[in-house]
Amino acid sequence: MGTPTLTRQDIAKLPLSTTSFSDLRNDDLIYVDKSAFIYDIACLKTPYFLSRPRRFGKSLLLSTFESLFSKGLDDFKGLAIEKLWTENKTYPVIKLTFSSYRTTSIEEFNEDFCQAIFDSFKAYLANPEEISRTPQTGPNTVLKQCLTQMKESSVVILIDEYDAPITHSLENPDLNKLIVNYMGAFFNTLKEYKDTCRFIFITGITRIAHVSLFSTFNNLNDITLDDEYSSLLGITETELHTYFDRYIENAAIVLEMTKDEIYERLKLKYNGNRFSVHAKETVYNPWSVLSFLSKPQNGFKNYWYQSSAGTPTLLINYLKEEWHAKQFSELSNNEEIYVTISELESKSEATKIPMNLLLQQTGYYTLQYNSESDVRLIFPNEEIEESIFNLQRDLQNLKLTSDTNRGMLTIPEYVDSANIDGLRELFNKIITESITPDTGIFNREVDIRNLIYISIPESVIFKSREKVNAFGSSDMELKTKKTRMVIEFKRCYRTDKFSVSEDQALSLGLKQLQEKHYGEGVSEKKLIRVAMVISQEKRSLTKWRILS
């Protein structure tokens, strides 16, 4: 039996609100029916702003608005909006993608910006030859000249990644200041002529002050943290089961797993993103889910980070500074991070975004309700936690050696043969190659466990952690076709007032495996339960024992 993928023809059979049924191996994201959201937004005339991390479909959302306003319901047959939308006219759509503008000099930026405005308007202008485009003409002037030739409420303006030119020029403060000024003048002009616009929608990753976007548009509808639109971008649990069940079934066949196991892994790996404080549900990262479903034979990879979504220019430029890198390291190892609602809703200068908010805006943290005045910032899923480890390794130029990577392939063999010494040696290589001498990772058992867990490739073995039963949750489980191995880690350490020896830690691990019945249940697989000791002093895994 061949390995089916989500092709253009397959996608076209699904009720998806997109105008481009591209093969999923391209950069286009395919969405389920979000057209009811589209209607709620498009029926109003107030300018909108939405911030989301990369690879969550901001560009596709704008393409959807572009289709609705330029072609009406042509691409929405059978979708919810077909019965709601009553406008019979279509509009000129001006779509500006700011990430495509050069930011190596103000002259190049100005040229690209002005050219993009003119090219977008040209087909709709009665007298395009009257538009001045000299090297001295700024984008605000070109925009003003173009809008002057348009009728009232006659044009739709869609702006993608408004913040890209600013974040891409941070390493050149003088240029960055000029770009901020140019964009401020542009948004001031857009506000001045907003009555000419039927609809304005702006996207970005960050919420940057001093570009006249948030201050000028006093009626700007910022839906970034709006509970009603928290699942506008992303795939909900219901949508995953409704629209993609047969592709889940295909993935189960390809990977020789059950459908329930596929759903479980998808949820742990790609779900958990929450974009408002009181969001009713979390969403899956659409890029990662669809990348997996298009080629399930590749396994549950970290598609988000591999696509460079986890390393946006702004974050990388920030982390080049020693102080920001230190903040990042401290936050990455802290499980208790809180931010007030007012801080979450605030706008910042591009060079002064607090690191916790920057990590939230770029997708590393998601929101968890704590109180009416503050929220906790947490990693949404395993993919993001793995991305944090990858980013830390990349910043410190730490890479697993080819020998260690090849050793990963032996894990199933080690599990089936109960070769715990082989596993311990491999795990110790992961630890040694992933940390620096000044690391504090040995201060907490969970950090070592997570480092090992994240480093084991999904393609090698089925893995899980914190597997819950009625008594507690196990540290790590590794599963082959024949064997289930449950590993409980315990740390030995010594302080001025207290100490736990290696033998004591080993006994605690064995006791926990037995008393909490980890791994027990109906299964045809052989069960092996192991306690492993993490030595803070020796900075490695030392002793182990199988629970008999």
Hey, roughly how much beta strand do the residues contain? 5-15%
Q: Uncertain segments of ≥5 residues (pLDDT<50)?
A: 1-31
Main pleated-sheet profile: 6 strands, mixed
Here the CATH topology of the largest domain equals Rossmann fold
The chain-level structural class is alpha/beta
C-alpha geometry? elongated
CATH class of the largest domain: Alpha Beta
Distance between the termini: 42 Å
General description of the model:
- It contains 22 helices and 14 strands.
- The chain folds into three domains: 31-224, Rossmann fold; 313-382, no CATH class; 399-546, no CATH class.
- The protein is 41% helix and 15% strand.
- A hairpin with a 4-residue loop joins β11 and β12.
- The chain has helices at residues 8-12, 35-42, 58-71, 106-121, 139-148, 164-167, 173-192, 213-216, 237-255, 259-270, 286-294, 303-306, 313-319, 322-332, 341-344, 355-361, 382-395, 402-408, 411-417, 420-434, 445-455, 502-515, and strands spanning 48-51, 93-97, 155-160, 197-204, 221-222, 338-340, 366-369, 374-378, 462-468, 473-479, 483-494, 499-500, 526-535, 540-546.
- It is elongated.
